[in-house]
Amino acid sequence: MIEHHVRVHPSADRLPREEQLAWKLAAVATATEELETDSVAMAVNRVIDNAAVAVASLSRRPVAVARAQATAHRATAPGASVFGSRARVSPEWAAWANGTAVRELDFHDTYLAADYSHPGDNIPPLLAVAQHTGRTGADLLRGIVAAYEIHVALVKGICLHEHRIDHVAHLGAATACGIGALLRLPTPAVYQAVQQTVHTTTATRQSRKGEISSWKAYAPAFAGKAAIEAVDRAMRGETSPSPIYEGEDGFLAWMLDGPTADYTVSLPALGEPRRAILDTYTKEHSAEYQAQAIIDLARRLREKTGPVERIRSIVLHTSHHTHHVIGSGANDPQKYDPAASRETLDHSLPYIFAVALEDGVWHHERSYAPERAQRPGTVALWRKITTVEDPAWTSRYHDPDPQRRAFGGRAVITLDDGTVIEDERAVADAHPAGARPFDRPAYTAKFHTLAGTAVTPADQGRFLDTAAHLPELAATDLDRLFPAVDTEAVAAFDATLPKGLF
């Protein structure tokens, strides 16, 4: 790996484009060629994972709204597919609808380092572009692996959350790079597309604060849509704000650490394997990733606590990020509100721990149902739970060794008779270093569970067979990466929603 130092430069420096971060990202993407077998296999896993969570979310209101907006933009051939519809639409609108469907349940992959990310959000816009431009499965895989490489590098090197910038700013850059690799575009075009995308997708983290709204699902879809539009403009020879990262009025200087900003982004050298996708991990439970190990911990602790009515207090010792983003350190009263939105509850560690401790299971719908959140016993337990930042867990969260890096915490439960029960979980069971690392059978089982009755068993099998053969798929086969569903039932649900402009 090559360490690239990124800092602010005054305009008078006339920083050569080859020394700019956007160019270096584009150069890595466009040099992505031969892919390693392990990286390809993991990319296939994530295509399966995305389809599973997308199909499970088809009757969710934000997904239906995005689908309605997209299908109002029908495309002349070839266009791109939309989950839950037979329509072919313009690729940027397919990315919008499918990106929302994938993100809605907070149930797909993650990578945590200096910042947060859901790198699987790159796949919907890449798949849309591949369909629209007649690319093969091998082309799509090259784009996916390149996008993951860029996304992970940015998340490792540049923290956005510290300045309350939403993590989709890194996603947009990665998607633009992935499209460039997919289409084998020249580096200068991808460089311009990266800059345009970063410029237009930088937003605040208010989308994940307080009463969290449905925009949480739309945000990555918006970044994917913007990346496609930026690539289109760059292919036509248009330029973008430059240098977007290092400029004196640019991203680092005014959105992040300021004029003295200095970051290090590590990128693979020419010819070095693209393996960053192997550092990422998916979710066994539909909740914020930092809650995954805590859910597993709560399920284990049920055997020790006895009736939850005996619990006087629960303190979860965890990392800075977990405490301040989904714990009581966020100082969001909404995280303790039984009437809060689903989007808020899946970012409330106290709520998640309470329900997992009571039920011993976690379900992407039932665990968030209003009647479940408003159960009096649950509310009483929920409000006994707080989080605290523990420097040891913060250190493990950022440990450079993937085998030591941890996203869990320690629970200290005090019962009404003064008995103290303690236990901890470093990583989720499904994490690569966990008790049951997710493998292809686990991804397949997750797909079968979430596809449920929405996709017939025969069609589930056809989809999985198609995904397994992704490296050999012809351009005309990419349509089969969208599991067949009852589109008439989906359309009937969509018809019940209010109309908009389109």
Description:
The chain has 502 residues and is α+β, with helices and mostly antiparallel strands. It has 2 domains: 278 residues, 2-methylcitrate dehydratase PrpD, CATH 1.10.4100.10; 137 residues, 2-methylcitrate dehydratase PrpD (60s Ribosomal Protein L30, Chain: A, 2-Layer Sandwich), CATH 3.30.1330.120. Helix content is 45%, strand content 9%. The strands form 4 sheets. The chain has a 4-stranded mixed sheet. A two-stranded antiparallel ribbon has the order 1-6. It has a two-stranded antiparallel sheet with strand order 2-3. A hairpin with a 6-residue loop joins strand 2 and strand 3. Helix 6 packs antiparallel against helix 7 and helix 7 packs antiparallel against helix 8. The protein is globular. The chain starts with a strand and ends in an 8-residue tail after the last helix.
Q: Which superfamily, in CATH terms, is the homologous superfamily of the largest domain?
A: 2-methylcitrate dehydratase PrpD
User: Do you know the CATH topology of the largest domain?
Assistant: 2-methylcitrate dehydratase PrpD
Q: Using only CA atoms, what is the Rg? A: 22 Å
The helix/strand class is alpha+beta
